[in-house]
Amino acid sequence: MANAIPEKIRMNTTLLENLAEVAKDAALLKGVLMRIQETPNSSELVTYAPFTLFPTPVPEAAFSQALAVQTHFNTLVDKISQDAEFLQDALASTIEVDDFTARLFKIHQQIVKEGTSQSVVCGLNRSDYMLDQAEDGSSSLKQIEINTIAASFGGLSSHTPDVHRHILQLAGQLEQSERILDNNPAAGLARAVAKAWELYGSEKAVVMFLVEEGQRNIFDHRYVEKELWNRNIATMRRRFDDVSKTGSMDRDKRLFVDGQEVAVVYFRNGYMPQNYNSEKQDWDARLMMERSLAVKCPDISTHLVGTKKVQQVLATPGVLEKFFPHQPQVVDQIRATFAGLYTLDMGPEGDQTVAMALAAPDRFVLKPQREGGGNNFYGSEMCEVLQEVKDGTERTAYILMDKIHPAPVQNVLLRRDAPLQISTCLSELGVFGTYVRKGEDMVLNECVGHLLRTKSSEHSDGGVASGVAVLDNPLLF
Ligand code: ADP
Ligand code: MG
């Protein structure tokens, strides 16, 4: 098995312990921070965001492939978001049974009917991948999902490279230390938001971060906020509740919250059912923001493009060609990253998907239309769920996906209060992409950095926020 831990250190527990202590200080020193679980509303007590002691080896070819395809994914997301008919068809079966997606879709439909008041659109995406390992040892880049709303860790991952550089220096791995890539998604995300702000065209209007109540990951946002303040763009943080209580639209549909005109709403919340607390107010607040003149990152249709159902429909033959009719190379480049994705719609094709999954449960993952980690079903649990829903339309709330098998790597996961131990780990590579469109013109379309997250192979699911994965850096080979 591959090992991220330098050979001479593996057997030396004392050295590992010393390195881990310095590593935690380095993370604190570099601002790789999180609020603690006990007091998520306060920065009086903070800890380091969990991270790996060593960077994880990642093949250079796969890494470059992921970066190279990102601007095409941006274009794809943006094109789909403008195709109301496609979204309607793709999500038709899902919204019959999935209440959350249906509520989002209803807002989308209202906006389509009214016509959007803002021609500027800002997308901040993160496309996530795992490297599927074949039996001959070769690996191929496979997309897990694309996040079109509230994609996180662009801030903290801008500061982890220095931590790993320092650890490798201490471990006597100078050559490797110098190979750790620079990374600055925070600056890239802010560049897109700043462009959207500029196109909105009012010096005194602010960028509003729409956030949740207890936000352990606040420092991740703060880095983007700081980048905006560096450009003299004012930011403020508000919750749905604040928007609902103090928000309004004037006759020109300009959005005001707490008396401030909002140029851009950057959603760092609103992607899970439980983000909408009160039955009605929070949904009304979302609707008001969507109807307003403020630029949304993302707007409601772009949010919907990130659903698992759209991902599955994109993998059906001929669909990518529809969005890139004259660019077969782009189609190939995108499709090369797709794993097998299967419909559970009612009918013979969906029936076949059910039979296939039940016959070989370890080959697949069952996914509902949820975000935030910990929602998917694997193995025997997947079979139980499928048995329960397979004969009715409830099954259309899910999609089925090939399970990706990345090569395991030995590493040490550092998290508060966890004992120091060597774990068998799996990694997931995220690539950040941003774009700003004004009417027909793509004003900006960039790949702005990466995120490597690593988790113990014992867990089949879950991200950093859900306490399973930790921050990492790729060491290209
Ligand atoms: P979420 O929107 O909740 O983040 P994901 O599709 O990213 O949903 O799945 C959550 C986690 O489950 C991923 O981070 C990954 O660890 C695991 N996972 C998801 N899809 C697959 C897959 N096809 N093969 C293997 N693991 C997967
Ligand atoms: Mg995910």
From TrEMBL:
The Glutathione synthase substrate-binding domain, residue ranges: 205-305
Annotated ATP binding sites: 145, 308, 367-376, 378, 401-404, 428, 455, 461
Pathways per UniProt: Sulfur metabolism; glutathione biosynthesis; glutathione from L-cysteine and L-glutamate: step 2/2
Top enzyme category: ligase
UniProt-listed Enzyme Commission number(s): 6.3.2.3
Binding site for substrate: 126, 149-152, 215-217, 268-271, 453, 464-465
Keyword line: ATP-binding, Glutathione biosynthesis, Ligase, Magnesium, Metal-binding, Nucleotide-binding
Residues annotated to bind Mg(2+): E145, N147, E371
InterPro entries in the cross-refs: Glutathione_synthase, Glutathione_synthase_a-hlx, Glutathione_synthase_C_euk, Glutathione_synthase_N_euk, GSH-S_sub-bd_sf, GSH_synth_subst-bd, PreATP-grasp_dom_sf
Pfam families found in the cross-reference section: GSH_synth_ATP, GSH_synthase
One of the record's GO cellular component terms: cytosol
Statement: the UniProt record of this protein carries the keyword Ligase: yes
Catalytic activity: gamma-L-glutamyl-L-cysteine + glycine + ATP = glutathione + ADP + phosphate + H(+); gamma-L-glutamyl-(2S)-2-aminobutanoate + glycine + ATP = ophthalmate + ADP + phosphate + H(+)
A Gene Ontology molecular function term of the record: glutathione synthase activity
SUPFAM superfamilies documented for this protein: Glutathione synthetase ATP-binding domain-like (SSF56059), PreATP-grasp domain (SSF52440)
PANTHER family assigned to the protein according to its UniProt record, in alphabetical order: GLUTATHIONE SYNTHETASE
Complex formation: Homodimer.
Known function: Catalyzes the production of glutathione from gamma-glutamylcysteine and glycine in an ATP-dependent manner. Glutathione (gamma-glutamylcysteinylglycine, GSH) is the most abundant intracellular thiol in living aerobic cells and is required for numerous processes including the protection of cells against oxidative damage, amino acid transport, the detoxification of foreign compounds, the maintenance of protein sulfhydryl groups in a reduced state and acts as a cofactor for a number of enzymes. Participates in ophthalmate biosynthesis in hepatocytes.
Name listed for the protein in its UniProt record: Glutathione synthetase
Organism of this sequence: Gymnodraco acuticeps (Antarctic dragonfish)
